[in-house]
Each structure stands twice: as structure tokens, then as C-alpha cells.
Amino acid sequence: MFDQDHYLKLYTEELERYCIPFWLEHGQDQEYGGLLNCLDRKGEVYSLDKSVWMQGRCAYMYSHLYNTFKQDPRYLDLARSCIDFLNAHCFDKDGRMYFTVTRDGKPLRKRRYYFSETFYIMANIEYYGATNEPSYLAAARKVYDMTYAIYQDPKNDPFQIFPKVYPETRNLKPQGPSMIFLNVTSIMRQFDPERTSLYNEHIDECIAEIKKHNFPEMHAQLESITQDNRPFLDSSEARIINPGHDLECAYFLAEEAQYRNDKDLLSFAESVFRDAIKNGWDEEYQGILYFVDCLGKPVEAYEHDMKLWWPHNEGINASLLLYHLTKDPFYLEWFIKITDYAFTHFTDHEYGEWYGYLRRDGKVTEPPCKGHTYKGPFHVMRCLNNTVQLLKKGV
Fold first, then answer.
1. pTM, to two decimals
2. Mean pLDDT throughout 159-168?
3. Where would I find the beta strands (DSSP E) of the chain?
4. 145, 228, 266, 295: most buried, per Cβ within 10 A?
5. Residue 168, pLDDT score
6. Domain ranges (residues) in the chain
7. Percentage of the chain with pLDDT > 70?
8. Cis amide linkage into residue 174, ω under 30° from 0
9. Cβ atoms 108, 59 nearer than 8 A
10. Is the pLDDT at 10 greater than 90, yes or no?
11. The pLDDT of residue 104
12. Domain 31-161 top-level CATH class
């Protein structure tokens, strides 16, 4: 018998007592605004450089918590500080955003990828949902339209930087942008119903692209494929399966299937989840591996067999939602299994928040950290809050 009350209490306490306060107490930059994202185990700052991703993710997450969990004005204060910092310091003259900046906002690095922009969009639209201030809707729309145009055709990108691999030699396309835009567009649709038909068209495009990366005969959702939608098996990098991305993708697909009441899309989300957990679960040490090769060959990335925080967050998200929608006990068993692993290995009730990196055997890497360029107040709290909200409804 599934004890919903037990898990509701577990996730609520983890969110409210150990995670939300960690960033409010340690992450806010009282001098320059925004978020100091490089925090060690105790919450002490070990690098003053700021991740632009994390400014947007933090603003989104605390706005979302305000909208769904608790209307605490401190959440919006932090969110607004991050958005103000982004607007003041994180846009280049061409309209594209930086990847990292100094503490006071001087540019350090800019990347071809437009994920800084997608998290900026999420931050503004969710903050608009909390405040109903039209300037944030306008900002979200402006950057969304620019960035989606780049997604549809890279020639629309004002920041023309040479690609990592010569496209004349090997021109592959990644799954990541389609997955991210599926999520971003669904959030835009929630708070901008005036453009629902446009967002639905874009979501259709994203789902169609995601499906092209799925190869049932290989039980694989590949990170990269050829421009004509075939697997490229001659390169280790092109054979990569990222189980965490696939679990996150399964969650976004299941959310959209729920919105549309689309059984076929739900079935596809289930297949993505099942392949991801089959490929990614470490039977020897438990937990979800970071990368695997679709043919079972060696993986070049040295971190491939590590256990990172966010794939476990996404596995929890996807498994519980799929159980809610299908009532198949398979997904409930995985929700419990991933929860047990994550709460045993990643949580830190002495200082708060979750560790980011474990070795394959589950030991925390030393010295441990709670935040860096890629980890901040996002995956963990999104997972905890999603679980709380779903358990409140009843699964």
C-alpha cells in the first residue's frame, strides 16, 4: 500500500526546511543583485563568477514556488533581483545573452547555445504569472520569438559563431533544444493564452523532432542524429544516451499528453521512460548513470559512470506523473526506488540542499559542493515541488 501522506511529508519538509532557505540565506548577492551560485557544502561562496543560466533558473523557480507552493514575498524579491541583474548585465549588443559574467556583471563567456535565453524566458513569464506586470510578459515574448526563430533556423542567429564540428564533415543535430522548447513553450502557453494556437504549433514541432531521436529497435533515445534523422554509429560521441535527459523528456511529454488528453503521446512518453531507466539504472550500485553508449561500448566522457543530482530529480518527476496518469504500478515502484536512492545519497540535513556529484559507488565527491555554474535552485526544488503538488492532488 502506497503511503501518500508519508511521501508528502518527506518531500514537503525537504523543500521547505532544507532547500528553499539554503539559497535565500546563502545565494542572494546583497551588493550587486542576482544570485551567487557557486556555493560549497555549508553555503559559503567559493567563486564569485555568476552563471547566467542560474540567474534565470533561480528567478523562474522562486516565482514558481510563489505561484504554487507559498506566497512568500521573499521568493519574489529574489526572483526580481535575478531578473534585474539579467536585464542590466547579461545581454550583448546583438540581443543574445552571455553564459557567465563577473559578480558585478562584466561579460566572461558567451556560447552558441541559447539556453541562457530560454531560462530568461521562463523567469519572466513565471514572474509575470505572479505579479501580472505586463513588462515581464513583453520581455518573455520578445526573447521567446527571437530564440525560437534561431531554433527553427540557425541562420536567424545574430551571434554567428563557428560550430564545434565542421558541418561539411559531420552535421548532426541535438535533441536538447527540442526538449527545452517543449517545456518553455508550455509555460508560455500557461500564462499567455492569447497566443495559444502559436504555442501549440511550436509544441507540435518540438514533439515531432523529439520523436526523430527515438529508435525503438535499439531501445534508444539518442542525443544526436544526422540531419536526415538517422543514427550515426561511427562516433562514440554520437552514440551517447543521456538517461537523465530522456527521463526529463518523458516528463515533459507526459505533461503535454495530460494537457491534450492524448493517449498516443502518453504511450510514447512511457516508452521513453522505460528505455531510459533500462539503459541508465546501475544494477550493481543503484542510481542513474550519467552517460551510456547505445551499443554498450566504452564512453569517452570521464564522468559517464558518475551519479549526478538532476537525472534522479527527473526520474522522480517522470515516474510519479506516469503513475498518476496510467496507474501502472511499474512507475510507482520506480518512484519509490529512485526516491530511496536520492534521499539516501544526495540529501544533506546538516547544511541543507543536495550534493551535486557522487562517484559510481554513491560516495560524495570531495570536497562536496551545493552549487556551481550548472547547479543551483532549479532541478532539486522543481522535483520536490512537483511531487508535493501531485501528491496533494492524490495519485
1. 0.97
2. 84
3. 38-39, 45-47, 50-51, 100-101, 107-109, 172-174, 214-215, 220-221, 224-226, 240-241, 292-293, 307-308, 357-358
4. 266
5. 87
6. 1-26+213-395, 31-161
7. 100
8. no
9. no
10. yes
11. 98
12. mainly alpha
